[in-house]
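Request from the bench team (R.T.):
"We need a structural guess for the complex before ordering more N-(iminomethyl)-L-glutamic acid. Sequence and SMILES attached. Just send the tokens back."

Command: build protein-N-(iminomethyl)-L-glutamic acid structure.
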Amino acid sequence: MKLLVKNIKELLQVRETSTSFLSGKEMAELPTIKNAFLVVEDEMISNFGPMTDCPESIDFDQVEDASGKIVIPTWCDSHTHLVYAGNREREFVDRIHGLTYEEIAKKGGGILNSAKTLQNTSEEDLYQQSKARLKAVMAMGTGAIEIKSGYGLTLEAELKMLRVIKRLKEAFPISVKATFLGAHAVPKNTDKETYVKELIESWIPKIAGENLAEYIDVFCETGYFSVEDTEAILKAGKAYGLKAKIHVNQFTTIGGVAAGVKNDALSVDHLELLLEADIQVLQNSRTMPVALPGCSYFLSIPYTPARKIIDTGLPLALATDYNPGSAPSGNMNFVVSTACVKMGMTPEEAINAATINGAYAMGLENQLGSITKGKFANFMITEPVNSYSFLPYSFGEDHVDSVYIKGHKIE
Ligand SMILES: N=CN[C@@H](CCC(=O)O)C(=O)O
Ligand SMILES: [Zn+2]
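Reply to R.T.: structure attached below.
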């Protein structure tokens, strides 16, 4: 199948050669071509350039006219908990009445509440609920997604979640990466040391053995898992080929960033709090800091200090954290906009963070995240807009007209 998209008002994130990720000042540059064309052959980007070099339409099976519209690589959402059962709007109302996220969790709400619901939900029902969410985020421009387990908290329920992620991966054309997050919370009436031992000795070998995850995650946080627990779990995961992507510095700074970097984490995520020492360990590492502004927005907690991160020369990725407790939205357009409005990122930085850097944060930088020959043809065409800055400017709206995954328009 040969597809030509022509008369594109502006083609964004055009990179001749593939870059792994962008750091510091590089993030301010978003290469584009005005009045451009894009060619897709057999699921891949095979050519692009200015309209003056556009090939003849007659040579193509399908031709799209993108006059007045912008073309962007699809969003790469590198941190989600999209597979979950039910919702937690009661806790949302409790927070409005004054309870904190931590207080709700202490009362048995929070992650344990979602785990209870998920344990009592059939695999088929969980799949249907998750499938609807995945379809919805794809329609908003997400073309690659990482999904975590961690609402099971029994081996059986964790396996159920991971099998649902596997089914989504098989049923949908977008790239889906699975992360095992058994260490999301300590289950009720369980001693933490016993639980961590079980994760290490039994669950990790089983999950890796069945090829149900590529990454391993730990909620490294006061009241959840310590740095010592985190390191032990990451080392066990590594022995089974699971690379680390971890939750750190959401509410307290206990040394999770250093633990992640020390254990070659692909990403350290949240970072609503960030110490000078954390910035220092991230320098000269290959670990991607990931900000989750939807969570800061929803829980009214600090935003990840993006300016500090970028201005010290580090890279930054943006993701949704889509989950029922702290970020019940998988809308990457909102995330990009909020990063501009609340974190002082420029549209160029935010788009880079949500495309190429997001792709890196899930090991997809060679396949996705930029308009580069040989990458998958995952892109979205906007509605007619004046400029790409209009996208984050018009917060709460998305101006995605159509989404193409591997060159095919999704319905
Ligand atoms: N912080 C840990 N996990 C999720 C929220 C979990 C929940 O509240 O259900 C997060 O990334 O924010
Ligand atoms: Zn999360």
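Two things stood out. The CA atoms of residues 57 and 63 lie 7 Å apart. The longest helix spans residues 192-209.
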